[in-house]
Design goal:
Distance between the termini: 35 Å
CATH superfamily: Jelly Rolls
Strand content: 35-45%
Order of helices and strands: EHHEEEEEEEEEEEEEEEEEEEEEEE
Largest sheet: 7 strands, mixed
Shape: globular
């Protein structure tokens, strides 16, 4: 497990491109047969990815000092690849493309697998601290709460699909969902915002192989950017904006931890204040 430590916004303003990428960018999440884990000290979010061309078990890591991985944690998983399987304490769940699962605190054995080893699933997950057990629940696309935002004129027409949230599949503090941009739209989260009460991780997917995305972060008056490619994630501190523009339309998974689970608790940034 790789550890990423917190960064002060005044320090961040002095970072080079290489330093920003080292501290905030997460790459190589889907190496066949392996599990990739990154532990962020921003609200103690763990970001993970697994591409199981053979069964892969979620093992406890010494960094969390627990008997098993979810002894004091919960997690949400979304499949962004071909069909996959997740077995939770002996119960097997099938996840088709776009489907997810919430796994509550206390689940001991979690196994990731694929029906086709030559075309394995891409299972992306977020995990955060938990203090109460909520039941494990599969999340199907047809049961998601959806919201449409933006417009073609602003190149930001998008549909927000909420997977784990207080009005849907419940959790202690983890909130997760996926935003899909319409063809011809390329901007996400713009006009932008911050939310001092929560950190967030964006995982970009469904981006064509020859396309790139420019992810903007930093304090509103000291913005920086990173070039992102398909199936890469960015850690976003509570003090940072998090917005992006692609050379093609795409999707992204958002996961949040922090003080509350209120999706609309955002501190809007006026376009005139961006620098």
């Amino acid at each position: 497990m790789e550890i990423r430590y917190p960064t002060h916004p005044k320090d961040f303003a002095t970072y080079t491109t290489e330093k920003i990428r080292k501290e905030f960018l997460i790459q190589n999440l889907f190496v066949p047969g392996e599990m990739r884990l990154v532990y962020s000290h921003f609200d103690r979010m763990i970001v993970g990815g697994v591409c199981p061309n053979q069964p892969v078990t979620l093992e406890v890591s010494q960094e969390i000092r627990a008997e098993f991985f979810l002894a004091r944690r919960e997690m949400g998983v979304i499949n962004v690849g071909p069909q996959g399987f997740i077995t939770v304490d002996g119960e097997k769940y099938t996840l088709n493309t776009g489907e997810g699962i919430y796994i509550g605190m206390g689940a001991k054995e979690i196994i990731f697998a694929s029906p086709d080893s030559r075309n394995p699933a891409h299972l992306y997950f977020n995990s955060g601290p938990a203090h109460k057990n909520y039941p494990t629940e599969k999340i199907e696309m047809g049961n998601l709460e959806t919201t449409r935002l933006g417009s073609p004129q602003e190149a930001n027409a998008r549909t927000i699909h909420k997977y784990i949230h207080p009005q849907g599949v419940k959790s202690c503090q983890l909130v997760m969902g996926m935003t899909r941009l319409a063809p011809g739209s390329v901007w996400n989260s713009m006009p932008c915002h911050t939310h001092e009460r929560r950190m967030e991780v964006y995982f970009y997917c469904n981006l064509p192989q020859d396309a790139v995305l420019f992810h903007f972060m930093g304090e509103p008056d000291k913005t920086r950017h990173m070039v992102i490619r398909n199936e890469e994630a960015v850690i976003s501190p509570s003090w940072s904006i998090h917005a992006g523009v692609g050379t093609s339309h795409y999707s992204f998974i958002w996961g949040m931890l922090g003080e509350n689970q209120t999706f609309t608790d955002m501190d809007a940034v006026a376009m005139a204040d961006l620098q």
